[in-house]
Amino acid sequence: MNNKHRRFFSAQFATIILTLWAMASCRQSPNILPAVPENAEKSVLIINSDKSVDKYATIQREFESTLEVKTIEVDIAGDRLSTDALQNQISSVRSPLVYAIGSKAYTLASTVIKNKALLFSSMINWRRFEVGSNTYGIALELPAEMQLFMCSYLFPEIRTLGVLYSEHHNRQWFDLAVSQANEVGLTLHGNTVENSDETIPALKALLPKVDALWLISDPIVLYNTQTTQTIFAETAARQKPIFAYNTLFSKYGAVLTISADIPTMGRQAAGLALDILKQQTVDEKVQFPAGSQVTLNLKKVQEYGIKINHAALSSVGKIIQ
Amino acid sequence: MNKFFLTTIGGYMLTHIDDRHRINKISTRAIIVVCLVLAFTLFSWRIEAASRNTLFFYNPESNINDFRSLKMLFDSYLSSNGWYQFQPFNNKSTFERFLEKRQNDVFLLSSWHYQNLVEQGYSNLQPILVGTIDGESTYTKVLSTKKNVRNIKRLQGKRIASAGDQDYTERMLESMAFQQRLRLNKPFKVLTVPKDIDALMSVLFGMAQGALTARHSLDTLAALNPRKYRLLRQHTESQAIMLPVVVVHQPISTFSTEKLLDAIEDMPHYSNGQAILGMLGLNGWKKLTRADMRQLSLPR
């Protein structure tokens, strides 16, 4: 074969390869609608706010592995569709139940879905959102009793907790928490904060009266990163431990964090989904998360000389040393 | 050792090299020396790793999801006692493969798993220590509900929160039904949660209709929150279950294995040992007695 023939066949070969590649790419295009499974009546449409976020991927994975039903997936961030295209895609799917993971997914789903059951999870403060009669969910926030129980169980000598809160956001919550704390032998002392400038003075007034600070989710108290860092610095200077509601506070130096366990939420959502699909009675439409993830900073415990109940360590999922 | 080797060979070569072919010979011989040193070092590491006694762990009944913390604590404790390490598993068959191969190592596993292995034919496995909680080597499981139910059969089809996995929980509930001479004909819906207190809270807050937990977890709730405890009804209690056991292959042929067993038994005397025991849900160890062996249904 001479050079001219070789070049011709090489070009032909390259063309075929390119064509095959282009066809394969088209098959994976996010703009093509997913096939509707045969048993659409028994399927669940999962709308994930962003599957690249680890906690959202984990909860979806646990949900799917527990659920014995076919699922169809829409990843809002990953699919990169316009809002209209997403709405059209969701509307065209015949699943009787939609599971929305994250606030973005829920906002989209609740706009589009009118006559189907809607299940949500992974939304911060779900009460901010409109919830219809056909809506079910798993809250992201653990009951205060669970957090108070773990404090009392792990640290038998800590008897008083300080709480900073804003009246507007957390007055009712605090009043209830006082009686819940009494149940486990703890006393709560609270200082209210009306604006972010008052946070540190309120903290300085509170700390001498209490054994530890209980950091709660309050947008006025935790106004910005700087305020949060100052809270931790002031508390550390007085060698008072901080108990917090989210594991991200471990990096600031929280001694104990108690948050909802993500994989359990996925399993819990799957159980709820099965009950909905089988049209079984559901007592609690929006449930507290069933599992908790406890992280203990043993290094800080030793640094502050806090007595710890070793028997309670079996309830700790992660220890920082 | 390796530096001496390199220096000796390198010194010999440098004093006996012909100047005309100096560069080629040095390159070739240097490569040979480096290869020999690397091979020797790798071989040494393999011998070292193989000879390092290990405590292997597998227990699906434990509430431990993240082994990193447990491994850190264990490795720190064990290394202060000798050349030892801790290796946890979350896969039964992988654990059993190591159990078969590693004759001089020590294994920590649940008592039912040990019984299961003996039934499979692992006849030379000998339990040496059993975990204890306040001096007791056994515990029981209790099924609690918020509402009054006549018996366990009434909870069929309902959601039961448990820190054990699906298989373990179903097996335990079947055993409890058998105790009451009841036959189950419908499955339970099992919600696996990280720990016993989560299971109890699930019932208290309506996420589940029943909770299968250890008796001592209920006792803890009773001590810390009597009001919440009084909201629960205890229905069925299992027979006594032996706590996790520490086993070895018999006969024990190395002094280091014996020393590792001693280090495990001594854990309650040290604060880091107490922390490890706490994570395992124990507070001590004891040597197995005849009564314990009978409990395991095996002749001593």
Keywords for this entry:
heterodimer; A: 321 residues; alpha/beta; Rossmann fold; seven-stranded mixed sheet; 11 helices; 18% strand; globular; B: 300 residues; D-Maltodextrin-Binding Protein, domain 2; six-stranded mixed sheet; five-stranded mixed sheet; elongated
Could you write a compact summary of the structure shown?
The complex is a heterodimer of chains A (321) and B (300). Chain A has 321 residues and is an alpha/beta fold.
Structure, explained:
- The complex is a heterodimer of chains A (321) and B (300).
- Chain A has eleven helices and 13 strands.
- By secondary structure, chain A is of the alpha/beta class.
- Chain A has two domains: 125 residues, Response regulator (Rossmann fold), CATH 3.40.50.2300; 146 residues, Response regulator (Rossmann fold, 3-Layer(aba) Sandwich).
- Chain A has a seven-stranded mixed β-sheet.
- In chain A, strand 12, helix 11 and strand 13 form a beta-alpha-beta unit.
- The longest helix of chain A has 25 residues.
- The radius of gyration of chain A is 26 Å and the shape is globular.
- Chain B has three domains: 48 residues; 140 residues, Periplasmic binding protein-like II (D-Maltodextrin-Binding Protein, domain 2); 99 residues, 3-Layer(aba) Sandwich (D-Maltodextrin-Binding Protein, domain 2).
- A six-stranded mixed β-sheet of chain B has the order 2-1-3-12-4-13, with helices on both faces. Chain B has a five-stranded mixed β-sheet with strand order 8-7-9-6-10, sandwiched between helices.
- In chain B, helix 1 packs antiparallel against helix 2 and helix 3 packs antiparallel against helix 11.
- Chain B starts with a helix and ends in a 5-residue tail after the last helix.
- The chains are: A alpha/beta (321), B alpha/beta (300).
- Chains A and B meet through helix 6, helix 10 and strand 13 of A and helix 3, strand 8, helix 7 and helix 11 of B.
